[in-house]
Every structure is written in structure tokens, then in C-alpha cells.
Write a structure and sequence with these properties.
- The protein is mostly beta strands and 1138 residues long.
- It contains six helices and 86 strands.
- Strands 14, 17, 18, 21, 22 and 25 form a six-stranded mixed beta sheet that branches.
- β71 and β72 form a beta hairpin.
- α2 packs antiparallel against α3.
- The longest helix has 26 residues.
Length: 1138
């Protein structure tokens, strides 16, 4: 994409002008790959560090930091600065070993790159001392920060120090702190980041960041200026399309705003206006263009480009100077509908240039404007408060100097929709009962009705003409609005629901002597009762005579007007009275409280207790006496307390009747007191109450339990018995509630506690076997626990281990598998070995259990194509533990892979050496060979199991070419390798017909002599360390025989044999000569005997090697139970050595 970088702009042109788009810039983004580095940071405890995110990316990026372990994240101590660096306010010892790195996501390429992977090494030996805060971000600068209007302003304040500083932001006006913008300000990232959304010009100010800790504070001031991209504050200030008539004038405005102030460039049809031909009727100003006396040729597209340092905007105006007679914009007649009394506006939808004059007619009569008929904007006929007489056909006539046009329309007027209560406007219902409110609707037939909706407090609560209120509550009372919407109008009605109930009891019902009256004259007073939405009609007073007929109530005053709140009565002498007051409304009588005439209280407080919540106080509490038992005004309580048991220091105090507790201070710790509380009023005291025992507050116990011992259980390693000697009760300084047994493992520092009662032993369960534990005991009271005893350290006994971890199947064959596993996560002792077991899922047969010392096991006792459930368990001296398992299947029986081999030939012998390749192994190998020029098999097969060792072939003819191949056999099938050719040394035997000729004898002598010379030469060459090239020799041999048999296929095979090959590595201690560099290719596994390797030697007779049945299929059945080891060479091609 690099070649396409640049600025692009689109221009669209036709005969009337050219429009253009804003320019865009195309850049080719690249995010080169960076291999993550591993780096270490060495730092002392308490130091502050800043780690940059080394990245190579565009500015359009997102940086995030990742921590390992993932439990570490951003907090008050760890922050990311504005440039993406990671800042530690101070390093803790627990940060040792922390791994962290940044991930940079390039937003342009959408690719992510890891920064260096840092490992934190913390030195705890000499921690750095505490220090005041230091602000690292924002940096000190005299340049203000620029933020654009309507963008979001983010200001980060990153501080280091020890202890961790707290950060706050303030907005300044000079030296004064001013308030933040309402609703647009918030803080993020633990107060370090101040965020102002939708920035405005008023946000230009100084902002102060203050970092504070116990040793001091630091401040940093950032100056912010709010700029703005070019924009148009009102649409009228931007260019817009206009249609004008010849001779008229037009003004095109471009009054853009922004900070800095935008510069304006004018263009016409995409061409800078300075480069166009001048026009006498056009005047150009910086922010507007005025064209007078327009001509049709003045039609053009004007562009205004407003730019400042932040952006540029382009606005266009098409000035269309047009001549046209009036034309209908739409060919369809428009029909207008409205309801009675509403306003309708009909449009004369025509176009003409110049703009045509519009007149309206109804039923052929011209409409003149009046208070109800108004022609608006020369096109619209507006009719207010339409009547049925206004319905009918209307015509508008549009006329200019080039012609006229007539449009027809019509108006239909419908009745207005009405909605009314079906029964009544106000509904009354008693609380707990049900009511249905209904409405009825009157709507014109031509109007489409919408849904009927019920609202309460402007909340939609129901639909339909009925609304049911079930189990009415007071909250259902109120006004209900019912509304129906139609296609033309809407109507609404308001209904009221009143939920009523019997009145609440009158409040503050008192009986007091009548002022200025006799001792038997009393005045009853009360507060008005709550009427529950039904006005109070009357009150009545009843009385009970305790000493005459207890429990029987008699009327005292039958009816008191509902607006009264007092009433005077003269009582009979010699009686003890109780009174009650009733209120009546339209629903019924209330339940009334009662009050007696003046007498001493009849009840004392209940639930009296005394207990301290600090070591030197006691809070006395009680349940107050009900108003019925107070029997008069000036009611209160007399509190008496003294030290038990002799009570020589009695204290008496009085509190108001509304008080429910009293705190006694400056008392000795945990002391017993005798307490009683008695009621009184202005008449007298209640009966003497019973005494109650209370205690002052407790304090922290002074002593720790002694002689702590822990007994383990060999039968259950998870349970121990903890014993201790109890503390002296006087040292507890409170009531002994019990003892706390605390225990932990030194390795994990996971502290656990168990509370028990006032005892000297307890059992602790759920411990881990074979683990060190530290136990200690403390006494506790209701206030606190005391000091802990000295720790008692034990090691729990061994137990059976948990299941092995990460069990997996490494390899599998048809009869074998390699199983591996990890040590148990819960060893629970010294693991002495493992037990493995195979269960065949096909027939439930089992192999094992088998003891194994290591963490893997190889077996060859499985059956092909069978499923096995393999279980492994670890073993300690306590026995075999929990098992882990996997389910596996063996491979199906398949033919073995073809063997690789080389041949070393002599005069009458040859040595064949083969190697096993990986994959399905063979259990037996056979060597097959024949003469290459005799297409009948001339020798039988020779078998051996000595893979990697030479197999001699004897009785061969000198100077004769042979084919040889290896047959690999297992219990399922056999695989034949590709055949290769070799030739024995010496001259080939002649025919018997010429052996006796003299010339033949002489010729043989000459040949023998030549052979002796050749042998001497060869010996001399071998003594020099040189060896002839097998590839060249084979090539010559193939060329000679190729001339005799004229076989193209043979030539193809020989060409393959000339390809250079690598020598195989040593096998079973033997290696091939290092100077051999060519060979004949082997057959691949699965090739048939009649494949390319044999076909390459001639005609169809070669296929007898497969088809005569002498060798194929005779080896697998007899040798299926045997097995031989196979070495795997590093190269796939055999080598022929001679």
C-alpha cells in the first residue's frame, strides 16, 4: 500500500457544475513483529520504578499491561501513566517474582504486539525508608495542553512515594479553587485521572494535581486551552443550495467559527475562485459572496473551505438560475382530513421560476383571507377552527410570467372524539375491597380509533375501557387520566378514586382535673383522629369501674361532635375509672386507646439488664411501660444500683419516661451489681420491683493457656486432639466464654481458628496428612481474646496420596502404549511408587495391577483396536491412594512399513543389510532376489531376523545383475520394498558351445591377464583411499543393458538411481561408507510388487515376481508370533555397496 499513500479528493461534474468532497489522507500502516524479550529488574523494597512500554507502532494505539499472577492488577500503588509506562509508587516484598509486560494494539492494522517480559527481583534485605510524594506525570512544561471542543479531556496524575500517596485534582481560577463543570466531570483510576466530557471554552483553566502521604505533599499544575475545529454555529452561516430567477440577487455566506479562527477559501466548480474569470456582477468578501442581476449562465457550484490547525470543513452551494412555468411537483391529488374545531393546512405543491403567485378557490369561488383563512408563504392555505361547512373541493392556481398551473384537493371534516365516564367521575371503595372504573367513547365512523390508556401520576397502568382495582389500598387513591388516541385527534377524561376505611384511634387521649372545677370534674382532651378519607362524624367516651364491674364498659358520653377535641365530665365519687375514646366516620367506629384518671403506675419496666461495652462502664436497659400502665402525667423511672452482695454503695437516680437506657461510667472492670427500676408519676410509685444482677464491662484477658499438647492419630492423619491447661478465672477479667485454637502451616501462612467452650481439649479435623502444623490456644471473653500460648509444632502422619496429576497418553501402537503422569498434588507422604492397571472396555479383561517406580510406563500386552480404561494410583507406606484415569484405544492391525536396505556385492556373494523405519513394525523379514536378465525366479528366499546385520547371499554368478527386495511381515499383513539392482564382480559365464575352441582359450587367457592388471590397478587405487562411485558404475551398467533390451522404462529407473542420496546413519554399530552418494530408490510402504520398481526392468514377464505366488503371502501366517527390533535410519533411500 506504500505506493498509494497520499491525499485523495472526489470531484463530480455535469453540465451544471462540479461538486467536490473533503480531502482524505491515505497512509499505509505497518506493525512490524517484535520478538518479546525477557528482562529482569532488580530493585530494593520501597523503591519507585517506571517501566516504559517499548513499542514500534502508530500513534493510533491502545496499551494494556498484563500481570502474572493475574491476581495483581492496577491499584492505588500500581498505575499506567499517560505515555503507557507502568509506574510502581513503591515496591513491596510481595512483588518479588512478579512478571508483567505490555500489549500494544495497533488500531490501524488491528494487530497486537507484546513488549518485553519483565521479571521483578525484589531485595528485602535493606528496605528504603519512607519518603514524601513525587509526581512523575504530568511532566513539567510551559506549553499548555490543547483539547478540542466537544472532545473528552483526560488528565492523569501519577505520583510515587512511601507510603502510597493519595491524589486529588482541583480546578483553579487564579489562586482560587472553583467548582467542576456540573454533570461533565468525574474521576477514574483511583482518583488519579480527571475526566471532563464534552469540553467547552469555559474549561480553559489551570488544573492542579496534589499528591499527599504522611510525609508531605507535592503539586503539579497543568494549563489547558480549549480549541475548536471549524464549525457553523447556525445553518444560515453556511452555504446552501438556492434556486433563483434571472435578474435576482443571491448572497452565499461562509461564516465559520473555531479556535484558532478559520481561514476561508472560496472555489467555483472545484476551481479556486482566484483562478476563474472575473464577473462584473460578483463581489467576493472573506466570508461571503454576493452575485447581483443573475443570469442563467451564472449557475454554478460554490465551495467554501474553512480551515484551521485542527481540521477543515467544506460546504457547497448550488446556485441554480432557472426559468420555469409553474409545474405540479406531484401528479396525485391530495385529500385532507381533519376533525371539527382543529386547524388544517393545505399546500399548493407547485414549482416555478420565478416563484408563481398563488390563489385558492373553493367550489369555483376565490378565497379571500380573513381571521380563519390565511394564505401562508404564498403556498399554504391555513384554515383555523374548521367547521363542517369548510369541507369540500379546493383548487389552487399558480401563475408566473411563463404560464400557470392548477391543482385540485379536497377537505373532509369529522366529528371530534369524545370520552366520558360510563357511570361517575368519583369512585369510593373501602380498603381491601375491589372496584371497576369505566369509560365510554364517541368517535366518528371515518376516524380510526387507537388504544384506550389509563394513567396515574403520568405512569401508564392499564389499557381498555375498564380498569379494575383489586384489594384497594390507600395508595390507590388519586386521580386517573383516561386517554384515547385516533388517527386525527385524541380525547381524555379524569376520574377520581377514593379508598376509605374506619378512622385511626384518636391520639394523646388524656384525663385531667378541670380547671376551676370540683375534685370530681375532669376534662378529656385528644388529638383529632386520622379519618382515612371519610370525615369524622362524632366521638364517644366509655368507662370501666375497676372496683365495681372489672372488664365491663359503660357509655359515659354517647355523642361528641366530630370537630371537638375536648369534653368536660363530672364523675361519681368513690370509684376507680378507666376510659377509652372512639371515633366514627362514614365507614365505622375506630379502635380507641384508653386512659385512667390520675393514679400511681400499675406496671414496672420489664427486661431489665445491666451490661458493659467498655471495661469501665455498665449500660442499664429496659423495656418501657406502655401508656396504659402509666396512669398519669410526669411519668418516669427510678433507677437503683449497688455492688453485690452487700450493697453498701447504693446509688439512686431518676430518668424521664421516654428514656430506655442509662450508662453508668467509671466503674471497676467486670464487677457484679444489684439493679432495680421502679415506675412513678405525679401520683406515686408503682410496686417495688425485683432485683436484677448486672455486670460492668469486661477487658482483655491477661493470661495464656499453658501445657499445650497435640496428639495425632495414625489411623486418621487428618484429625488431631489438642489439650491445654485452663487459665486462672480471675485473669480473664470477664466471663469465660471459651477458648480459641489457632493453627497454621508454616509454608502457606494460612491461619485458621476454631472456637470451643470452657473446656481443656478439642478435636481438630480436616488437616492435611504429612504436613507441618503449628498450634496455639487463647482464652476469650465477651470483650476480647487473650494472649496466645506458645506454639506447639507437629507433623501429621502419612496417608494415602491423592490422584496423580496430568495423566496423558504419549504414544500408542496396535499392541502397545506409553502412559505418562505427574506426581500427585496431594502426596500425603513419601511416594514410593505407582500402581497401573489396564481394563479392556470391550470385554472387561484386566492387565495388572502393575507396580511402577517412575512416572511413565510402556506396555506391549494390549490387543489391537481395543478400548482400555487405564488407571494409575500413587503409593505411600500407608497404601495405594486415589486413582487417575484416561480412556485410550490401540491402533488397528496394519501392514508394517517397508524396510530400507543396502547391498554390498562380491564375485559370487552379496551382503544385504536392512533397517526398520518408524511406524508399524514387522516381526519377520525375508530377502528375495533373482537375476535381472532371467525373468523367472532362479533362487529361493532367504529369511533372517537380524535387522541391521548383513545377510549373505551365496552361490551367485560372477558379473551378473540381480534384483533384490525385502519383504516385511507381521501378524496382519506384509509389505514388499522396492527392488534394487546390483551386479556381482567378474566376467559373466559364456555359453557351453564355444568352451572347447582354441580361439576361445586364447581369448580367456587374454581376459584373465587384463583382469589381473585391472585388479592390481584397483588395489593401488584402494590403497590410496579412493573408492569408485557406485552411481557412475550403475549408470554404465544400465546404459549397456539399455542398448540390449531397448527399454524406456529401464532407462527411467536408472535415471532415478542417479539421483544423489544421503548415507544412512550407523545402525547396530555398523555404518555405510561415507563416499557412496547414489542409490536406487526404495519402494514406499503399501506399494504392490508389480509397481514401478519392477516394471522398470522390461516387459510383462517382470510381473511374475508378484503373480507366480511363490513368495507373496507365505510369510505372515507362520511368523505372526515373533518380534524383532528395528533401527530407523535417517534417510529414506538404500545404498548399494560393492
Amino acid at each position: 500500500l506504500k505506493q498509494y499513500e497520499g491525499r485523495y479528493q472526489c470531484f463530480a461534474s455535469n453540465d451544471l457544475g462540479t461538486a467536490m468532497t473533503s480531502a482524505i489522507t491515505l497512509k499505509a500502516a505497518a506493525s512490524p513483529y517484535q520478538r518479546p524479550e525477557n528482562k529482569e529488574i532488580n530493585v530494593r523494597t520501597g523503591a519507585s520504578i517506571t517501566v516504559p512500554c517499548n513499542y514500534s507502532s502508530s500513534n493510533d494505539r491502545v496499551i494494556t499491561w498484563t500481570f502474572q499472577p493475574a491476581t495483581v492488577t492496577y491499584n492505588e500503588r500500581i498505575a499506567e501513566s499517560a505515555d503507557g509506562s507502568l509506574v510502581f509508587a513503591n515496591v513491596l516484598g510481595s512483588d518479588n517474582g512478579l512478571i508483567f509486560y505490555c500489549i500494544v494494539k495497533d488500531l490501524a492494522t488491528r494487530k497486537s504486539t507484546d513488549g518485553p517480559h519483565y521479571t521483578l527481583n525484589v531485595d528485602n534485605t535493606v528496605p528504603l525508608p519512607d519518603r514524601p510524594p513525587t509526581i512523575t506525570s504530568p511532566v513539567l512544561t510551559t506549553e499548555p495542553r490543547i483539547v478540542l471542543r466537544d472532545d473528552t479531556l483526560r488528565m492523569k496524575c501519577i505520583a510515587t512515594g512511601k507510603p502510597v500517596p493519595s491524589v486529588r485534582w482541583e480546578k483553579l481560577n487564579g489562586n482560587s479553587v472553583v467548582s467542576w463543570p456540573n454533570g461533565r466531570f468525574r474521576t477514574e483510576d483511583f482518583g488519579r485521572t480527571a475526566v471532563i466530557s464534552n469540553a467547552s471554552y469555559g474549561d480553559s483553566a489551570d488544573y492542579r494535581c496534589t499528591a499527599t502521604n504522611a510525609l508531605g505533599e507535592a503539586t503539579r499544575i497543568s494549563k489547558v486551552l480549549v480549541h475548536a475545529r471549524p464549525f457553523f454555529s447556525v445553518p444560515e452561516n453556511a452555504p446552501h443550495d438556492v434556486i433563483k430567477t434571472p435578474g435576482s440577487n443571491v448572497t452565499i455566506r461562509c461564516q465559520a467559527e473555531g479556535i484558532p479562527a478559520p481561514e476561508v477559501e472560496w472555489r467555483v466548480n472545484g476551481v479556486p475562485i482566484a483562478e476563474t474569470s472575473p464577473m462584473d456582477n460578483r463581489v467576493i468578501h472573506p466570508t461571503k459572496i454576493r452575485i447581483s442581476n443573475l443570469k442563467v449562465s451564472d449557475s454554478a457550484v460554490y465551495q467554501c473551505i474553512a480551515s484551521n490547525m485542527h481540521n477543515s470543513i467544506i460546504k457547497q452551494a448550488y446556485v441554480n438560475v432557472l426559468i420555469s412555468m409553474p409545474l405540479p411537483v406531484s401528479s396525485e391529488d391530495v385529500e385532507y382530513v381533519q376533525v371539527l374545531g382543529k386547524t388544517v393546512e393545505m399546500k399548493c405543491n407547485v414549482f416555478g421560476s420565478p416563484s408563481p403567485a398563488i390563489s385558492w378557490q373553493k367550489d369555483g369561488n376565490k378565497i379571500t383571507e380573513n381571521e380563519r383563512f390565511l394564505i401562508r408563504k404564498s403556498k399554504y392555505l391555513r384554515i383555523s377552527e374548521v367547521t363542517f361547512d369548510d369541507a369540500g373541493a379546493y383548487t389552487c392556481v399558480a401563475t408566473n410570467e411563463y404560464g400557470n398551473a392548477t391543482l385540485s384537493t379536497s377537505l373532509t371534516v369529522f366529528r371530534r372524539t369524545k370520552i366520558q365516564p360510563a357511570a361517575q367521575y368519583r369512585y369510593f371503595v373501602r380498603r381491601g375491597e375491589s372496584v371497576t372504573m369505566s369509560v365510554k367513547i364517541d368517535i366518528d365512523d371515518g376516524v380510526v380509533q387507537g388504544p384506550v390508556q389509563w394513567f396515574k401520576s403520568d405512569v401508564l397502568i392499564g389499557r381498555g375501557i375498564n380498569y379494575d382495582v383489586n384489594n384497594a389500598a390507600f395508595t390507590d387513591s388519586g386521580s386517573y387520566k383516561v386517554m384515547v388516541n385516533t388517527s386525527l385527534d385524541h380525547a381524555a377524561v379524569h376520574l377520581t378514586l377514593v379508598v376509605q376505611d374506619i378512622p385511626l384511634p384518636p391520639l394523646d387521649f388524656y384525663v385531667s382535673p378541670k380547671s376551676g372545677g370540683s375534685p370530681l370534674d375532669v376534662t378529656f382532651t385528644w388529638q383529632p383522629a386520622e379519618d382515612n378519607y371519610s370525615p369524622i362524624q362524632e366521638y364517644k367516651i366509655e368507662f370501666e369501674k375497676d372496683n365495681y364491674r372489672p372488664g365491663k364498659w359503660f357509655p359515659l358520653v354517647d355523642s361528641i361532635p366530630g370537630d371537638r377535641t375536648s369534653f368536660d365530665v363530672t364523675l361519681a365519687a368513690g370509684l376507680r375509672y378507666k376510659f377509652r375514646l372512639w371515633a366514627l366516620n362514614g365507614i365505622g367506629w375506630s379502635e380507641a386507646p384508653s386512659a385512667e384518671t390520675g393514679s400511681a403506675p400499675t406496671a414496672n419496666p420489664s427486661g431489665v439488664s445491666g451490661k458493659g461495652n467498655t471495661p469501665t462502664n455498665m449500660i442499664i436497659t429496659w423495656d418501657p411501660v406502655s401508656p396504659v400502665g402509666r396512669n398519669g402525667p410526669e411519668f418516669g423511672y427510678q433507677i437503683t444500683y449497688c455492688t453485690a452482695p452487700d450493697c453498701t454503695d447504693k446509688e439512686v437516680l431518676y430518668v424521664d419516661g421516654e428514656v430506655e437506657s442509662y450508662e453508668v461510667v467509671n466503674l471497676p472492670t467486670y464487677t457484679q451489681y444489684i439493679i432495680n427500676i421502679m415506675s412513678y408519676n405525679n401520683i406515686g410509685n408503682a410496686s417495688v420491683p425485683q432485683d436484677v444482677l448486672g455486670y460492668s464491662g469486661e477487658d482483655v484477658p491477661l493470661s495464656a493457656p499453658s501445657d499445650v499438647t497435640v496428639e495425632t492419630n495414625e489411623d486418621d492423619a487428618t484429625v488431631v486432639i489438642v489439650r491445654w491447661q485452663k487459665v486462672d478465672p480471675d485473669s480473664v477479667r470477664g466471663k469465660v466464654l471459651g477458648y480459641i485454637v489457632s493453627y497454621e502451616t508454616p509454608s502457606s501462612n494460612e491461619l485458621k481458628e476454631r472456637s470451643v467452650g470452657d473446656t481443656d481439649m478439642t478435636g481438630i479435623a480436616g488437616l492435611k496428612p504429612f504436613t507441618d502444623y503449628s498450634f496455639k490456644v487463647a482464652v476469650y471473653n465477651d470483650y476480647s481474646s487473650g494472649p496466645f500460648s506458645q506454639s506447639y509444632v507437629i507433623t501429621t502422619p502419612e496417608s494415602t496420596p491423592g490422584p496423580p496429576s496430568t495423566m496423558r497418553l504419549r504414544t500408542t501402537t496396535d499392541t502397545g502404549a506409553h502412559i505418562a503422569w505427574g506426581r500427585p498434588q496431594e502426596e500425603n507422604g513419601d511416594v514410593i511408587g505407582y500402581v497401573i492397571k489396564f481394563v479392556c472396555l470391550n470385554d472387561s479383561t484386566e492387565i495388572g495391577p502393575i507396580s511402577v517406580e517412575g512416572t511413565s510406563y510402556v506396555t506391549s500386552q494390549l490387543r489391537p483396536n481395543h478400548m482400555y480404561d487405564v488407571t494409575v494410583a500413587a503409593q505411600t507406606l500407608k497404601g495405594v491412594g486415589e486413582t487417575a484415569n484416561i480412556v485410550m484405544s490401540t491402533m488397528a492391525g496394519e501392514a508394517p512399513v517397508a524396510a530400507r536396505f543396502n547391498v554390498t556385492a562380491g564375485m559370487t556373494t552379496a551382503n544385504v543389510t536392512w533397517y526398520q523405519v518408524g511406524g508399524i513394525p514387522a516381526t519377520k523379514y525375508f530377502v528375495e532376489y533373482k537375476k535381472s536378465n532371467e525373468w523367472k525366479m532362479s533362487h529361493g528366499s532367504y529369511s533372517t531376523e537380524k535387522t541391521g546385520e548383513g545377510v549373505p547371499l551365496a552361490g551367485l554368478d560372477p558379473g551378473t545383475s540381480y534384483l533384490v527386495r525385502i519383504v516385511s511381515v507381521n501378524a496382519y499383513d506384509q509389505t514388499v520394498s522396492r527392488a534394487i539392482m546390483f551386479k556381482t564382480a567378474g566376467a559373466a559365464a559364456a555359453s557351453a558351445g564355444v568352451v572347447g575352441e582354441v580361439w576361445f582359450i586364447v581369448l580367456m587367457c587374454i581376459i584373465v591377464l587384463l583382469l589381473i592388471i585391472i585388479v592390481i590397478v584397483c588395489l593401488l587405487r584402494r590403497r590410496k583411499g579412493g573408492k569408485y562411485s557406485v552411481a557412475e558404475k550403475e549408470g554404465q551398467l544400465v546404459d549397456q543393458e539399455s542398448q540390449q533390451i531397448k527399454s524406456d522404462e529401464y532407462n527411467d529407473e536408472t535415471d532415478d538411481a542417479k539421483k544423489p542420496l544421503k548415507s544412512p546413519p550407523p545402525v547396530n554399530g555398523k555404518s555405510t561408507p561415507p563416499d557412496i552418494s547414489s542409490a536406487v530408490p526404495l519402494r514406499t510402504r503399501g506399494d504392490s510388487v508389480a509397481g514401478d520398481s519392477i516394471d522398470a526392468f522390461g516387459d510383462d514377464d517382470a510381473r511374475e515376481f508378484n503373480e507366480d505366488g511363490s513368495f507373496i503371502g507365505q510369510y505372515g501366517a507362520h511368523e505372526s508370533g515373533e518380534s524383532s527390533a528395528a533401527a530407523t535410519p535417517a534417510d529414506d533411500n538404500p545404498v548399494i555397496n560393492r
